[in-house]
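To illustrate the input format used throughout this study, we show a single complete record. The first block contains the structure-token representation of the backbone; no residue identities are included at this stage. The design step must infer an amino acid for every position from geometry alone.
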């Protein structure tokens, strides 16, 4: 079923900008939820069982975990992510940025 086996070379080609087999080309579908990260993970594991496991397949799975982590981190901290203090409550440091106090 896996005819091109491009994931075997993912680590070497993921940052290339031209060609048919650079990157995974899955970002748009993963980003809008059309394709599940879990589904891609399980298919990658199946690929590893049927073919081989190497640094590229491990790197691809690591990238999936980071994408999932960042997605849930942002869902949890969305309201604070772009505030002046980030996700931390640093109201005690308000004097450092309050121009009237300084």
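Output of the design step:
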């Amino acid at each position: 079923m896996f005819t091109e086996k491009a994931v075997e070379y993912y680590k070497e080609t993921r940052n290339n900008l031209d060609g048919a087999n650079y990157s995974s080309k899955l970002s748009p579908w993963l980003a809008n939820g059309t394709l599940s990260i879990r589904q891609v993970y399980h298919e990658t594991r199946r690929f590893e069982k049927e073919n081989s496991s190497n640094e590229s397949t491990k790197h691809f799975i690591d990238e999936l975990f980071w994408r999932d982590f960042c997605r849930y981190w942002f869902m949890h901290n969305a309201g604070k992510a772009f505030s002046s203090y980030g996700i931390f409550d640093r109201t005690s440091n308000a004097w450092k940025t309050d121009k009237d106090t300084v």
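Structural context for interpreting the output: DSSP finds four helices and no strands in the chain. Residues 48 and 57 are 7 Å apart (CA to CA).
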